[in-house]
């Protein structure tokens, strides 16, 4: 997008408050209470209407108000304290990584490539779990003091905004990102010049400009092809996330992998470990091979170096979910590239060649697995599946010996914990629980929290969620002139005192959002119970090209507006990180019904669990590791090995109804005289105690560091030392 004059805020900010700009332009603020509170204090209305976006708050606030604040001693104290906290945090000496690995700190940095980054709602460059995971990984890398940079795209139209039409059919809206309303700036080299590179994509030359986003101590570099000098069709290359056809996708991945390496070079950054987060960025391997070969190494030597320094994470247990390109298409873009690697065309194609059951093609995951010395899946189960799935790449090894390990996903707890829960943890667990979050002993103290207090914190968050759902419905009435049907479907009849089940995630069909509707009569009995009703709140987007996903959504929307569900089933439009925060903090039960074993990990249930929300989930992904019989419910059907999809769905639905009828609903409504559901609260505590320390990005990034990054660093340093 055009690098506009990019007005700084300095002309507007009173000198005394000039550093508000530094705070607003580092997403550090988003996971620190003190900084969030500061921007709330600046202007609470704008905090809400901008959906928590400090850059917009500072641009939109009337200058007189800033002058007032600059004279307000209480505000100045608050401001000073937050600045000190940020400065202390951004210095790295006291952090985990430099303390444990002082010898590696200077020698070696890590570059993390991903097609999506979910850092904050205001930067819509993520579509779902993969992006949120990247964002959380970067925040944690900052918290732990890892020498870390991220590389991705700045999509000008981002991921779409969702609106359902009166038939419940998803419409996609692509608002243009305004760079002045988001915390990004043109990336600059040390000499102050903006970074711009020109690279080859097939026969064409494409210019890329680069934006910089600060995520605490981590710099995230986002490339953007919408540059004056590019042809109109090339300017579209980075416009949308997963848009366009195969041809476009291949070109995007060339930009990400090959352009990404060139951008880091141009910035003078020399990572020694390269993390490929999902196959989209695997072409970086080729570019690094080329560099080594052009420095004089033989191809095989170059492969040895590249393998030593690469970590690859695969995320999909579905064979067809991995990117492939036909050899013809590859030929078109890479025929000039083979000679530069010093290998024949055939040898080049063999690097990615793989038969995924739909024919042989160039497969990005196969490429990444062959050329990465360190590979992993994202849960124990997914590790096993991946070893089996890719075994044919290592014909001489047994399945259990396939070199793919696992690191179970986690979530960045400070980003996803509700304020009311945070307050309880600070008081009863430890004032510095965030620093010590991965110590399981610490969480034993959860038993000391009075039941009533925990329950009240939960009901407070639940009310906040309800207020948000209602306000969205009201806005929908005003801005879209929504009809009563739509208002009904958006949740205005939900009762804050009754049980609420949440289901929110991408509408991919394997997630089976409509499983609960398999037996309508049985569901109606649950929904219409006179004293113990259940309510269900749905949210999520389907990929714009995924019609089966959209039909599922339509089915749910139609139930939500139907009198048969009596306003107790609702669909919240336009799911994103902002909506997710409210839902994972404010419902009572988090429902997850993937068709096992297709959920590689899942993370939304972790966010919920740590906020005291009970998981009701198929034993797949992370939940297969976390469930202990006391911290939530496992939907486990009696299953025949031979069951087809229909039978599996039927059996899982029956198991789900049975759990709701016999366990979930009775436990929720069983109250003491003071209104507290004692048995429920006991489960909440067990959920927090078991999930918090084990499924955080704190544990996850430490595991990546100890088992992947550091071994990779040691290998590459040794190799380069020998050279
Ligand atoms: C956490 C999160 C996800 C991931 O949800 P899963 O249930 O793990 O698939 C997707 N989208 C958003 C906005 C999230 O916050």
What does this structure look like?
By secondary structure, this protein is an alpha/beta fold. The protein has 3 domains: 15-91, no CATH class; 99-158 and 241-409 and 702-719, 3-Layer(aba) Sandwich (Rossmann fold), CATH 3.40.50.2000; 419-695, Rossmann fold. The protein contains 30 helices and 21 strands. Strands 1, 2, 5, 6, 7, 8, 9, 10, 14 and 15 form a 10-stranded mixed β-sheet that branches. It is globular, with a radius of gyration of 26 Å. Residues 128-129, 132, 505, 575-577, 580, 602-604, 607 line the site of pyridoxal-5'-phosphate (PLP).
The end-to-end distance, rounded to whole angstroms, is: 43 Å
Query: What overall form do the CA principal axes indicate?
Result: globular
Q: What small molecules accompany the polymer chains?
A: pyridoxal-5'-phosphate
What is the second-level CATH architecture of the largest domain?
A: 3-Layer(aba) Sandwich
Which regions contain 5 or more consecutive residues with pLDDT less than 50?
none
Domain module count: 3
For this structure, the CATH topology of the largest domain is: Rossmann fold
Indicate the mean pLDDT. Answer: 95
Tell me how many strands there are.
21
Tell me the CATH superfamily of the largest domain. Answer: Glycogen Phosphorylase B
CATH class categorisation of the largest domain = Alpha Beta
Give a brief outline of the structure:
With 723 residues, the chain is an alpha/beta fold. The protein has three domains: 15-91, no CATH class; 99-158 and 241-409 and 702-719, Glycogen Phosphorylase B (Rossmann fold, 3-Layer(aba) Sandwich), CATH 3.40.50.2000; 419-695, Glycogen Phosphorylase B (Rossmann fold, 3-Layer(aba) Sandwich), CATH 3.40.50. The chain contains 30 helices and 21 strands.
């Amino acid at each position: 997008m055009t690098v506009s004059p990019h007005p700084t805020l300095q002309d507007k900010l009173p000198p005394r408050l000039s550093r508000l700009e530094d705070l607003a332009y580092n997403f550090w603020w988003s996971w620190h209470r003190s900084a969030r509170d500061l921007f709330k204090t600046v202007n609470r209305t704008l905090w809400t209407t901008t959906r928590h976006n400090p850059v917009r708050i500072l641009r939109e606030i009337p200058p007189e108000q800033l002058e007032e604040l600059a004279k307000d001693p209480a505000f100045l104290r608050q401001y000073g304290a937050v600045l000190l906290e940020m400065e202390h945090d951004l210095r790295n000496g006291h952090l985990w990584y430099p303390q444990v690995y002082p010898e590696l700190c200077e020698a070696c940095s890590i570059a993390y490539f991903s097609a999506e980054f979910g850092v904050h709602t205001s930067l819509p460059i993520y579509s779902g779990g993969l992006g949120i995971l990247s964002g959380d990984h970067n925040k944690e890398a900052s918290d732990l003091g890892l020498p870390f940079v991220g590389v991705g795209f700045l999509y000008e139209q981002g991921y779409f905004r969702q609106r359902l039409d009166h038939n419940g059919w998803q419409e996609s809206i692509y608002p243009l990102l305004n760079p002045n309303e988001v915390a990004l700036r043109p990336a600059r080299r040390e000499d102050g010049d903006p970074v711009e590179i020109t690279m080859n994509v097939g026969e064409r030359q494409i210019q890329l400009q680069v934006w910089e986003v600060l995520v605490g101590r981590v710099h995230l570099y986002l490339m953007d092809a919408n540059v004056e000098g590019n042809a109109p069709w090339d300017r579209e290359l980075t416009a949308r996330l997963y848009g366009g056809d195969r041809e476009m996708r291949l070109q995007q991945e060339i930009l990400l992998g090959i352009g990404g390496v060139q951008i880091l070079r141009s910035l003078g950054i020399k990572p020694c470990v390269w993390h490929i987060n999902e196959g989209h960025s695997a072409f970086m391997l080729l570019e690094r091979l080329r560099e080594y070969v052009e420095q004089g190494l033989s191809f095989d030597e170059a492969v040895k170096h590249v393998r030593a320094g690469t970590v690859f994470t695969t995320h999909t247990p579905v064979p067809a979910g991995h990117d492939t390109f036909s050899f013809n298409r590859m030929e078109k873009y890479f025929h000039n590239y083979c000679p530069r690697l010093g290998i024949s065309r055939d040898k080049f194609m063999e690097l990615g060649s793989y038969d995924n059951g739909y024919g042989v093609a160039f497969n990005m995951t196969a490429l990444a697995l062959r050329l990465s010395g360190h590979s992993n899946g994202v849960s124990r189960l997914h590790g096993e599946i991946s070893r089996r799935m890719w075994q044919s790449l290592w014909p001489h090894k047994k399945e259990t010996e396939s070199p793919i390990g696992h690191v179970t996903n986690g979530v960045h707890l400070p980003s996803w914990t509700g304020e009311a829960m945070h307050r309880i943890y600070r008081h009863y667990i430890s004032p510095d629980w965030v620093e010590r979050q991965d110590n399981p002993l610490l969480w034993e103290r959860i038993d000391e929290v009075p039941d009533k207090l925990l329950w009240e914190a939960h009901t407070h968050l639940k009310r906040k969620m309800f207020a948000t759902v209602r306000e969205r419905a009201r806005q929908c009435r005003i801005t879209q002139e929504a009809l009563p049907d739509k208002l009904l479907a958006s949740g205005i009849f939900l009762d804050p005192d009754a049980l609420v089940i949440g289901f929110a995630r991408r509408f991919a069909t394997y997630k089976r959002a409509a499983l609960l509707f398999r037996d309508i009569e049985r569901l109606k009995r649950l929904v219409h119970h006179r004293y113990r009703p259940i309510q269900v709140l749905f949210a999520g987007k389907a990929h714009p090209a995924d019609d089966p996903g959209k039909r599922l959504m339509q089915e749910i929307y139609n139930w939500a507006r139907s009198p048969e569900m009596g306003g107790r089933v609702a669909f919240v439009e336009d799911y994103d990180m902002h909506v997710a925060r409210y839902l994972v903090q404010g419902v009572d039960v988090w429902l997850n019904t993937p068709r096992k074993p297709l959920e590689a990990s899942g993370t939304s249930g972790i966010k919920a669990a740590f906020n005291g929300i009970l998981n009701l989930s198929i034993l797949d992904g992370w939940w297969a590791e976390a469930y202990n019989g006391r911290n939530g419910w496992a939907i486990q059907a009696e299953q025949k090995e031979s069951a087809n999809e229909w039978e599996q769905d039927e059996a899982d639905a029956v198991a789900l109804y049975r759990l709701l009828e016999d366990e979930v609903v009775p436990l929720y409504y069983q109250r003491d005289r003071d209104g507290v559901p004692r048995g429920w609260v006991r489960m909440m505590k067990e959920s927090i105690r078991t999930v918090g320390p084990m499924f955080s990005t704190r544990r996850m990034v430490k595991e990546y560091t100890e088992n992947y990054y550091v071994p990779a660093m040691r290998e590459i340093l040794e190799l380069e030392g020998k050279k």
